[in-house]
Amino acid sequence: MKFAGVFAALAASVASTYAAAPLVVNPPAHAVVNTPTVITWSGGIGHITDSATNNQPITLNFPNLAGTSFTWNTAVPRDTVAVAAVTDSIGETAFSGPFIVQPNCEYLLLPCEPA
Predict the structure, then answer these.
(1) Residue 32: predicted pLDDT
(2) In 3-state terms, what secondary structure has residue 29?
(3) Side-chain half-sphere exposure of 24, counting CA atoms within 13 A
């Protein structure tokens, strides 16, 4: 009987761990070359690892983040299509929708119209 009680408590603990809010990554409102881009997420369990992947052969990893946001210095070329991926401590990964990195008009000598 004691074994059944311990097993039930363990099963309830595991179930509550996996019943946490699902991990969701929000695409940034805007991303501009060489400016800070805030990536936010909700849900998940434990420590978070964030990465930014794009249409270039580049993946940037930022391990052991705390909280629900990360500021990325968007040092990739304009018109890069990027996706933020967030992985929690149990291995669940969620992706933002794709977003396009806009030109930084402040540093261009030619006329610039961000999309």
Answers:
(1) 93
(2) coil
(3) 6
Stated pTM of the model = 0.68
Residue with tokens 């304009």: 78
- C-alpha distance across the termini of the chain, in Å: 66
* CA pair distance 86, 89, nearest whole angstrom: 10
Query: Does residue 59 surpass a pLDDT of 90?
Result: no
Mean pLDDT, residues 17-34 taken together: 82
Characterize the bridge pairing of strands 99-100 and 81-87: antiparallel
Q: For the chain, give me the number of helices (H) and strands (E)?
A: 1, 8
**What 3-state DSSP class applies to 47?**
coil
Tokens of 44: 């998940």
**CB within 8 A of 65, min separation 6: which ones?**
47, 48, 49, 50
